[in-house]
Design a protein that fits this description.
The two termini are 25 Å apart. The chain has helices spanning 2-22, 29-36, 46-68, 70-88, 94-122, 125-157, 159-177, 208-237, 243-270, 277-296, 302-317, 320-365, 369-396. Residues 186-197 have low confidence and may be disordered. Helices cover 80% and strands 0% of the residues. It is mainly α. It has a single domain (2-185, 203-396), classed as Growth Hormone, Chain: A (Up-down Bundle), CATH 1.20.1250.
């Protein structure tokens, strides 16, 4: 028992280090706007550039994790991510910077399916929600650290130094974790070492409840990416904070995500374990309420703005752990990597669309109220759809 919790700590730390690099682009957006002379609409291209690689490679990455095991796929993904960020720090133009983010995101796309497989391999069903919540806390803790550190580095040394630091943190994690992860071994020996999928591996694609589940992930991905991309600018342009203050509010939102991921993971193990989808509906409800608050009752007082940002993190980020537990259980031991990859791919589509939708609405109406209202409606749609389709989704897991 102690070994699997130690390995979970290692996996969580590696996820946090990767998140420090990838999520660090969000709090750096005000500095990048000044550095590259960007418009508000161009901001919408940065976070999707990271996740475009996920759209292209998450399913192959899931198969890779199933076949070769957690350790080589996880470490390889982190190495590619670190290399992309290091190159981004030297990018001469904004298009070149976006390409470097794409390379980094391609490596990042391998990480989540590998971690999903690790959770399924290490933990029995009654502990998976907690384990996945702890693992997902690594993502938001990395996001908190980047939001607190990187804007200050950018203010002192420039955005290039901040991006270079992001890549260095990811690379440093690889050097620390490669030996402890040797205990994870390779994939199940009963599975032939081939990456060719069989027709039965894709039978889930013909089941409407699973497709509905992935559709909810797409919308939740839209919500998450819009908050990642535009909460820092909203804080500066609409609430009057400076770049460092915006970083603090981003950290508050990441803290909300970290706490809620763990809390929801534990809750989904202890209560309504057969109805994990209910917890997805809850986060959608919180997201709808906070986005409506940004639209109609903007709060500029520091304590109030921090509290609202924390609640925003619950709605925008808190659902991820439960979502990936459900996807892993849908896949079972043999297809956990594939279904985790499919779940990540559905989220990535939303991550690509969300900032563009928010940016177009903001540009057209020249007001933050309209996009926040639209995203409050999307969060409400997820809540409603999950409550209606949830029983069928949960039956597919059994």
């Amino acid at each position: 028992m102690a070994t699997r919790w130690f390995l979970l700590a290692i996996l969580t730390g590696s996820y946090g280090a990767g998140a420090f690099g990838m999520l660090g682009i969000s709090p750096l957006s005000p500095s990048l706007v000044a550095g590259f002379g960007l418009t508000r609409l161009q901001v919408a291209l940065m976070v999707p550039s990271i996740y475009l690689g996920g759209l292209l490679f998450s399913l192959p990455a899931g198969r890779l994790a199933d076949r070769v095991g957690v350790r080589p796929s996880l470490l390889g993904g982190l190495v590619v991510g670190a290399a992309g960020l290091a190159a981004g720090a030297t990018a001469p133009t904004f298009p070149a910077f976006l390409f470097c983010l794409f390379v980094a995101g391609s490596g990042w796309s391998v990480v989540n399916p590998a971690l999903g497989k690790a959770i399924m391999d290490l933990f029995p069903a009654p502990e998976r929600g907690m384990a996945m919540g702890i693992k997902q806390m690594g993502l938001t803790l990395g996001g908190i650290a980047s939001a607190l550190v990187l804007p200050r580095v950018a203010a002192t040394l420039g955005w290039r130094a901040a991006v270079a630091l992001s890549g260095a943190v990811v690379a440093l994690a690889v050097s620390f974790i490669w030996r402890p992860l040797g205990g994870l071994g390779r994939g199940a020996p009963a599975v032939a070492p081939t990456l060719v999928a069989t027709p039965s591996d894709w039978s889930w694609a013909r089941r409407p409840p699973i497709l509905a589940f992935f559709a909810s992930g797409l919308i939740l991905g839209m919500v998450q990416a819009a908050v990642l991309s535009y909460l820092p600018l909203y804080t500066v342009q609409a609430l009057g904070f400076d770049a460092i203050g915006a970083g603090l509010l981003v950290a508050c939102s990441q803290a909300g995500g970290a706490v809620s991921r763990l809390a929801l993971g534990v809750a989904s193990d202890r209560w309504l374990a057969e109805r994990r989808s209910v917890w997805l509906a809850l986060t959608g409800c919180v997201g709808a309420a906070t986005f409506a608050g940004y639209a109609f009752w903007p709060v500029s007082a520091p304590l109030g703005a921090g509290a609202l940002a924390f609640a925003t993190g619950v709605g925008a980020y808190g659902w991820v752990g439960v979502f990936f537990v459900i996807s892993a259980e849908l896949g079972g031991v043999r297809r956990v990597g594939l279904l985790s990859g499919a779940a990540f791919a559905s989220i990535v589509v939303g991550l690509l669309i969300g900032p563009a939708v928010f940016g177009v609405l903001l540009d057209h109406w020249d007001s933050y109220a309209v996009p926040w209202v639209v995203f409050a409606a999307l969060a409400t749609l997820v809540t409603t759809a999950t409550l209606l389709a949830g029983p069928a989704i949960d039956r597919e897991r059994r």
